[in-house]
Design goal:
Helix content: under 10%
Distance between the termini: 40 Å
Structural class: mainly beta
Shape: globular
Number of helices: 0
Order of helices and strands: EEEEEEEEEEE
Largest sheet: 7 strands, mixed
Length: about 110
């Protein structure tokens, strides 16, 4: 059974940094493409980053150069390092494997 548990969100000032984690269970994370997506209040789900089984990464234009997706194969954890945060980054962040996602973690960036 696939289970994804996100953590690490919080309140941060504009220009600050956060690291999100996604603990995976029920499968080996490194064998799949994993994604981070986010949903801001009143908006749809926005894809922001992928990491493939071969560790190739891609980013949306909105976060490229500021966010880094990575994983720890031994811990079976996916990460999202976020820096230079802006109020527009305020959203609930989710990790995803295919159509499965966790409960999300709230990131709020104050101006």
């Amino acid at each position: 059974q696939v289970q994804l548990v996100e953590s690490g969100g919080g309140l941060v000032q504009s220009g600050g940094s956060l690291r999100l984690s996604c603990a995976a269970s029920g499968f080996t994370l490194s064998l799949y493409t994993m994604s981070w997506v986010r949903q801001a209040p009143g908006k749809g789900v926005e894809w922001i980053a992928d990491i493939t089984a071969r560790a190739s990464t891609t980013y949306s234009d909105a976060v490229r150069g500021r966010f880094v997706i990575s994983r720890d194969n031994f811990k079976n954890v996916l990460y999202l390092e976020m820096s230079s945060l802006e109020p527009e980054d305020t959203a609930v962040y989710y990790c995803m494997k295919g159509a499965s996602r966790g409960q999300g973690t709230q990131v709020t960036v104050s101006s």
